[in-house]
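Ligand: glycinamide ribonucleotide. Inputs:
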Amino acid sequence: MKNIAVFCSGNGTNLQAIVDAVESGYIKANMALMVCDNPSAYALKRAKKAGIEIFLLTPKGFKTREEYDRGVIKKLTEKKIDLVVLAGFMRLLSPYFIKKYKDKILNIHPALLPSFKGTQGIKDALDYGVKVTGPSVHFVEEGLDSGPIILQETVEINDADTEETLAERIHEKEHIIYPKAIKLFIEGKLKIEGRKVKIS
Ligand code: GAR
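Predicted complex:
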């Protein structure tokens, strides 16, 4: 069975969706580790409740991004992690980390990439005035939110939407497509060909 590590910094609703998908047998893998950089993340409570091992590593005291990442990689190696799942992990990974886990890191972004990259994908789409937005799951490579896209979903934006109401609908879709993309990865159904991901 493949070992998954989920990385979180915040609420952890995507972590919860993944945990539920593993527990129900939809994803046939082992939830081996939850990595967190934020001691006040609600995701920690979710991981604890689900009985998942937690690796909490705060960036304080690390001089460089790579030094921090080496600390994380040591733990990932120990736990024999096959897949790294970024679920609201608000730290950039170092090139060293990305090379080490090449084609084995997934991320979810709350906008239709390549639009609205960065940390405010929902607000930026709303402020721009687009009529359709939605989450993207992609492989992680060195550029910000730039790796090959695996799955996307659309959400229509209404005149009455606020950041909160829109976020709610985007999250609902995230909780469907992220477990689905992870399942496809675990079953070996994703093939990267240049910028494209072929799904078999
Ligand atoms: C999700 O909406 C995810 O798309 C976003 O953080 C949220 C985490 O929610 N990620 C990014 O913006 C990455 N650029 P969660 O902690 O409830 O899963």
